[in-house]
Amino acid sequence: MRGAALALWFLAQAAQPPAQKPAPQAEAQPGPFRVQINEVIVPVTVTDEKGRFVSNLEVGDFRIFDQGREQKIVYFSREQSQPVVVGFLLDMSNATRLHWKTFQEAALELVWALLPGDKKYSGFLITYGNDVELAVNTTHDSDKIAEKLRKLKPGGGSALFDAIYQACTSRIMVQGEPIEPRRVLIIIGDGNDNASKKSREEILELAQRNLVTIFGVSTVAFGFTSAGEQTLTRLAEETGGRVEYPLQGLYSSVSGYLSTPSDEGNYALKVGTGGYASEIATGIFKAVSNVAGEVTTQYILRYVPDSTDTARQFRNLRVEVSLPNVKLRYRKGYFPFAP
Questions:
Q1: Rounded Cα–Cα distance for residues 45 and 65 (Å)
Q2: 251 with 279: CB under 8 angstroms?
């Protein structure tokens, strides 16, 4: 039922009328799959003012700038369901105990959505508490990851940064990474780290050097805040991803929210009732759908920098499209050497 529901959501999205855009220009021809040693690869997500994916743009609608200098796009793809390797990073710290079953379910939904059994899609599972464990190595089989997920129990600290380090360095690689298939990490946690040997800046640079896009499904709930929220947001925004907050604002449209005090908490829908469970399920479903949709609906731009500067400093990127009222997500820069 879960897979059928998610499939219906994607069909509904596809049925929505696409955003209007300028007349198309000539499209770059992919040709044989070749990657030059100094080529830069930039996945780009484009959404309209309602958050719907804009999936009908042509290469002529894009402009890309490297350190402020416009570059010539040598490869362009808008094919949906592109090959991808997804790392699922699951927070096992004590902070997840309260809503553990909820986020265990979210992780299962993401695995089933992003690993449908096609050889184009691979994934692995890393859990992190006081220590980091590669729970399931790279596989096409979603059942292997789902079986492991069902057996997990939270407890301990949070070594998020070490988990990202291991995801980038210590697992079986798929031939063609990180260009085809692309590399994606999905962090299911609150962004806190109190047990890592690595620092945030170290792993951010490592992710950028390895062309990793990071997404987050935050476990922070019901109006609370987390010291790790800024970390999760920065990791996502700097690498071209996004963070979803499935348990925030669930009751904002429900009459009585924050106006009916009770011993078990100020909830408009009482814990243990069908309405309460339904709100949580809806929040999780939307978050999973948004992340899964974005991972599989991206434009891929590649170019060869026209600069002869071979220094290893970070280089800034900017992408523009000739369409008003849209939001673009892409990585903010790169380190100029082959991944």
A1: 16
A2: yes
Length of the chain: 339
* Sign of the dihedral defined by the CA atoms of residues 218, 48, 84, 69, in that order: negative
Handedness of CA 55, 59, 63, 67 (dihedral sign): positive
Cα–Cα distance measured from residue 124 to residue 72, given in angstroms and rounded to the nearest whole number: 35
Inform me whether the pLDDT recorded for 34 exceeds 70. Answer: no
- Residue 244 burial (CB count, 10 A): 23
pLDDT greater than 70 at residue 282:
yes
For residue 56, the SS3 value is: coil
Report the CATH fold assignment for 84-296: Rossmann fold (3.40.50)
Cα 297 → chain centroid: 11
Instruction: From 154, 158, 232, select the one nearest 195 (Cα to Cα).
Output: 158
Beta bridge partners of 70: 65
The domain ranges of the chain are 40-80+301-339, 84-296
In this prediction, residue 14 has a pLDDT band, given cuts at 50, 70 and 90, of very low
The answer to whether residue 11 scores a pLDDT higher than 50 is no
